[in-house]
Amino acid sequence: MIRYSQVTPKHVYLNRRQILAGGLAALTLPGIAQGGTKLQGVTKSKYTVDEKMTPYDAITKYNNFYEFGTAKEQPAELAKDFRTNPWSLSIEGAVAKPQVLDLDAIMKIAPLEERIYRHRCVEAWSMVVPWIGFPLAAVVKLAEPSSKAKYVAFQSYYNSKQMPQGKYGGIPFPYVEGLRLDEAMNPLALMVVGLYGETLPNQNGAPLRLITPWKYGFKGIKSIVKIRFVEKQPPTTWNLSNPSEYGFYSNVNPEVDHPRWSQAKERRIGEIFKRDTLKFNGYGNEVAALYSGMDLRKNY
Amino acid sequence: MRPLLSSKWAKVFVFALCLMPLLLLGWRGYRQDLGANPIEFITHATGTWTLRFLVFTLAVTPFRKLLKLPELIKFRRMLGLFAFFYGCLHLTTYLWLDKFFDWREILKDVEKRRFIIAGFTGYVAMVPLAITSTTGWIRRLGGKRWQRLHRLVYLSPIAGVVHYYWLVKSDIRQPALYGFLVGILLLYRVAVWKRLIII
């Protein structure tokens, strides 16, 4: 397999072309979505949906990544120069094998697979995205959690110099998220390193992010630097910011409204009229058992 | 400045200027340049312009006094009507493109969502003002009564700011900016009524 560090990042070879073509290329390629080095050895997963995929352009120019600004088009622009290599991911806490991984090691945690998931934002829009990654369960296995580990806590990279817009976001940084250990072990929980066959663009959470397709998008923490196994339910950013609106679980649920808007319907990006939102975003068969006996109105 | 303002073309020019946001929106729509979520883009653009025109309308009186340009009054009705016009577009976007005229859903929204209630209040308050904005209605109601009715104009921008503030997730800079502007323009009125400023 080709090493991640050996391939030329797309923006670099694009830059070369731009230099070659002089200013003209720069004029005709304004704000081209950076990122995207072709990923090798990716297998197709059985996890796919029979729905039209959202175009690459929409997925990479309509982002919630508040560290890079709160307007949807801002992250694509302002995360351009965000450095994701070198990167280090610390796996720590109640585990037998705490470790720090660099990008090459991260890419080798498990074989890469492509999964086409529905993606539902808490703001009532949705997409269909061909993610590339490996199961979060592989990270759990690698870390060998002790019996004390009941939850997994995630933390994003934050640096106010690289992310000057962060201070206007109105939420505390670094961004933190968490899952119950059994949620993290669910086969659907995916550590994502790419989309549409290429490495993740910065604005989508490069180089490593979480995707839990049965939960609202904000659970899918971006640009992860720390995964900590803990005994108690860890704090999560949106819950800290506004506990009555965003719970720890944040499972997609058309029956439980956001206090300020309905979650019954969603607008699929690219469509005009709204469609019905599915419970657990349509992944009930895989995940509903995780919450049996729980009152989902209380545990929103 | 004065001859420019009193020129018969001034109103035509301002009218065309007021139409620009809509034309630009239409042009971007035609070029498919409204981003990944065009409906949201249109909703936000029409909403923001409603609020902006309300601010412009409220700014006329202080500006004509402070700048000693009484001629500015002739644009006030137009600016107010444009606020109503963009408000209509905003409401239509919501009713049609967001809710697809699903009246049960809409009623539920109006009942349950406080930001919808605030926005709707701001809109409804503009309706009688738009209807009675003609010279005929001023005559029919009589100057005093007309003026009293048109005090309602202070409600819409306040409701609009609250609507915006209740809508955003965590970044409150934009609603705070409009809140600040509306606050200043209303404080000016209070100061005049309390005779703290004499002009």
Characterize the structure shown.
- Chain A is α+β, with helices and mostly antiparallel strands and 300 residues long.
- Chain A has a single domain (39-291), classed as Sulfite Oxidase, Chain A, domain 2 (Alpha-Beta Complex).
- Chain A has helices spanning 10-20, 23-28, 56-61, 74-78, 103-107, 136-143, 181-185, 237-241, 284-287, and strands spanning 43-44, 88-93, 99-102, 113-120, 125-135, 151-156, 176-180, 190-195, 198-199, 209-211, 224-230, 265-268, 275-276.
- In chain A, the strands form two sheets. In chain A, strands 1, 4, 5, 8, 9, 10, 12 and 13 form an eight-stranded mixed sheet that branches. In chain A, strands 3-2-11-6-7 form a five-stranded mixed sheet.
- Chain A is globular, with a radius of gyration of 19 Å.
- Chain B has one domain (2-193).
- Helices cover 78% and strands 0% of the residues of chain B.
- Chain B is built from ten helices and no strands.
- Chain B has helices spanning 2-6, 9-30, 38-66, 76-98, 103-112, 114-131, 135-141, 143-149, 155-167, 173-193.
- Chain B is globular and about 50 Å long.
- The two termini of chain B are 21 Å apart.
